[in-house]
Structures are given as C-alpha cells and as structure tokens.
Amino acid sequence: MIGRLNHVAIAVPDLEAAAAQYRGALGADVGPALDQPDHGVTVIFITLPNTKIELLYPLGDASPIAKFLEKNPAGGIHHICYEVDDLPAARDRLTASGARVLGDGTPKIGAHGKPVLFLHPKDFNGTLVELEEV
Ligand SMILES: CC[C@@H](C(=O)O)C(=O)SCCNC(=O)CCNC(=O)[C@H](O)C(C)(C)COP(=O)(O)OP(=O)(O)OC[C@H]1O[C@@H](n2cnc3c(N)ncnc32)[C@H](O)[C@@H]1OP(=O)(O)O
Ligand SMILES: [Co+2]
User: Start and end of every VOC domain (predicted)?
Assistant: First the structure.
C-alpha cells in the first residue's frame, strides 16, 4: 500500500540556523520558509535526489510539535511521510488493522497541496507516520 518515502521531518529549535547548515555545510538545495497555519508549523523543504527533508518549527500557541521540542530541545526526527495512492482507502485499512489515525480521520491539505493524515507513533514502533496522497 505505501509507496515512496516523501520526506523525513526534523523538528528544529532554530529554523534559519538549520537551513543555513544544510545549505552551507551540507551543500543542499534548500527552499524558502513557508508558514502552515492549519498545521501549526513553519516548514522549509530540502530537496535531495531521492527524497526530501522537512525542517519544522512551531507556529502559533497550539503547535503539535511544541511538546516534542520541549522534550528534545536540540531537535530531532519528528516524522516520516510515505506516499499512498488512495488516502481514504489507506485510512480505512489502517483503522481496520487497529492503528490510530490522528484527529477525526478527515485528511487535511499538507504542505504540497495534497491530502495528508497522521498515524499515532505508539502504533508504529515509536515513529509518527504521515501519509500523503499523490
Ligand atoms: C506542514 C504540513 C505537514 C506536511 O505536509 O508535511 C506536516 O508535516 S505537519 C507536522 C506537524 N503535525 C503533526 O505532527 C500532526 C500530528 N501530530 C499530533 O497529533 C501530535 O503531535 C501527537 C503525535 C499526537 C503527539 O501529541 P503531543 O501532545 O505532542 O504528545 P503526547 O504527550 O500526546 O504524546 C504521546 C506519546 O507519543 C510520543 N510522541 C509524541 N510525538 C512523537 C513523535 N513525533 N515521534 C515519536 N513519539 C512521539 C510522546 O513522547 C508520548 O510518549 P510517552 O512519553 O511514552 O507517553
Ligand atoms: Co510532514
């Protein structure tokens, strides 16, 4: 059911410093900072030959990554995102398997303008999983 790895997301305490490190020390193709108010984050995408890195920084008072950064003040890998062809079908299959889909199960539009859903990290070996319909 899952396809390509769309991105690996890293929560960071200083977005511009992280972007500068990827641009300078790692010589990567770093995009602009984009506010995502519906998701409570500001993101910067880094394009690699085979996938993307999503740098995440909290936006607003109720950011879903605020607690994660409190627990991991130096930052850390926050989630991985797999592509799926049919997000409602994937959601129904996962729910039937006993996995918890976060929120009310209604996909939101993600940073690439495509529908996304998240799966509880406790149901996937301690890893928060995002699914993006492509
Ligand atoms: C830009 C849009 C989009 C895209 O297109 O790419 C994005 O990527 S948006 C990214 C940000 N959005 C989200 O993360 C939405 C989904 N996340 C959530 O709903 C919450 O963050 C959460 C996963 C339910 C966690 O909620 P929180 O309140 O922060 O923590 P809890 O205390 O409830 O956590 C319970 C439990 O899970 C552990 N945990 C939390 N976050 C992670 C994580 N990222 N990876 C692994 N484990 C995580 C947390 O430590 C708790 O464990 P215990 O301490 O053992 O109880
Ligand atoms: Co993401």
Answer: 4-134
